[in-house]
Amino acid sequence: MKITADTNVLLRLVVPDDEVQQKLAIETLKEADSVVISVHSLCELAWVMERSYRAARLDVAAAIRCFMNTRNVVVNRPIVEAGLAVLDAGGDFADGVIAFDGRFHGGETFVSFDRKAVKLLKGQGTAARLLK
């Protein structure tokens, strides 16, 4: 069976606050031939872990890397690595994903009102401009 895992399934694997659902999520992913994880689900996962569960960025990055390195998991590695690069630098995973995806689709400059995101992306060599 080839499956696509929703964010709430990923959360159950990372956050042990519902033992029954966690066990079911683990069994389902172990039994699958492949588990596709959308970058959108990873953006949601990062956001929920940080905002709702107060997880440290280091823990969020570790969870995403764990999924990436699981034998039967399929992710868009380049875009996920771009998100992790910004997360590792102290920013938001989604900002790295958005900037990468924008470049992929022909965008030349990342624009935002978010000073931190612009600064981090510029520091990584991405054309970025703060709107003010």
As an assembly, this protein is single chain
Radius of gyration: 16 Å
- By DSSP, the count of extended strands is 5
Integer tally of domains: 2
What is the helix content?
55-70%
Mean pLDDT: 96
What does this molecule look like?
With about 130 residues, this protein is mainly α. It folds into 2 domains: about 1-75, 5'-nuclease (Rossmann fold); about 80-130, no CATH class. The protein is built from 7 helices and 5 strands, in the order βααβααβααβαβ. The protein has a 3-stranded parallel sheet with strand order 1-2-3, with no helix packed on it. Strands 4-5 form a two-stranded parallel sheet. Helix 1 (about 5-15) crosses helix 3 and helix 3 runs antiparallel to helix 4. It is elongated and about 50 Å long. The model has no long low-confidence stretch (mean pLDDT about 95).
Please summarize what this structure is.
The chain has 132 residues and is mainly alpha-helical.
Write the layout of secondary structure elements.
Elements: E1 2-4, H1 7-14, H2 19-31, E2 34-36, H3 39-51, H4 57-68, E3 73-74, H5 77-88, H6 93-104, E4 110-112, H7 115-123, E5 128-130
Parallel strand pairs: 1-2, 2-3, 4-5
Helix pairs in contact: 1-2, 1-3, 3-4, 4-5, 5-6
Pfam families: PIN
InterPro entries: PIN-like_dom_sf, PIN_dom
Keywords: DNA-binding
